[in-house]
Amino acid sequence: MLELLPLLMLAPEPPPIDPAVAGPEGTAPAEAPERPDPPMPDEPAASEGAAVAPDDPALPEPPDLPEPPGSAPEPPGSEPEPEPLRWSAPVGCPSAAELRQGIELRLGRPLGPREAQIDARVDPGEGGYRLTLRAEARGVSEQRTLDADDCGALTAAAALIVALAVDPVAVAEVMESTAEPDALPPAPRRRSASPGPSTPESAARGFLGGLLRVGAGVGLGAGPGATAVPSLSGGLRWGRARLELEGSYWIPRPSEPIESEVVRVQLGTAALRGCGVLARDRLEAPLCGGLQLGGMRGDYEQVSRTTLWLALEAGVGLSWWFAPRFGLAGGFTAAVPLVRPGFDAATDPPVRLFEPSSVAGRLWLGIELRLGS
Question: What is the pTM of this model?
């Protein structure tokens, strides 16, 4: 205020009021136009026609508030997590829900959302089904390929494999605490694993089963010339061993005529043999040895004569199991007669018409059928 006093003293006095301008007596004179206040010494005068905007104080920036859950955008390049259980199977097989139920049944608790990553597929095959399984749990990835006749059994096997990969201790506790043995669905017997050769351990886990084979072949040495030989075999299988009983029949063949005499020779045998089997995947190679017992018959024009046939045999075969219970087989069997019968003509002196060779051989093909487990 003290600074404004000099300015007020220097301000000019207002001019006298003109009576003509003044209003009637007793009334106030008309208001004179207001004079603008002189500018402050420390403030510049505003230019005419320009509006002076007051300086607004700077407002503080609003604080960052956390976004509600689920509304945050995904970072660029992020991909959604894969499904923890992918299951593909033909119509009639158990569903993905049943597979998950089987896993949780063996764990004794629900399966966590990120405990395992499972990719399983069941495809129909020749005479059965094939399971291709990939399971990842606790940072370990495992792949399996199983074959079985029943799709449900493959589903039970997949549930057991996944449960063991997730928590083997929990699976063991559930199995120990189970009062009834049939509470858990059984896993199928593993027919073949692909790839991988057979091992001595798998051979030791043999099982008792049966074998039936129907075959036909060509034989040489036991009769005159080459002849057809049908055969029928049955036996038992135990792991990598076989015990077989085979019957064969050599179709009659005439001998070469000597002095116009001819004999027709036929042979029937029963062979008992034991075999050791070499196996890899679906191939088996039995190495066999045994004994043949039978009768050889010679038919002349008017009479017939039968003699004893006794021989040692050895053979090798190869079987390809193109289906769980059916296989295509072939092999070669050689026989050494211990008793060599002969057929003579009724002449004086007698003339030998036919005598078997010191070694007889047979090449054969057949279809095999597995019986039992």
Answer: 0.48
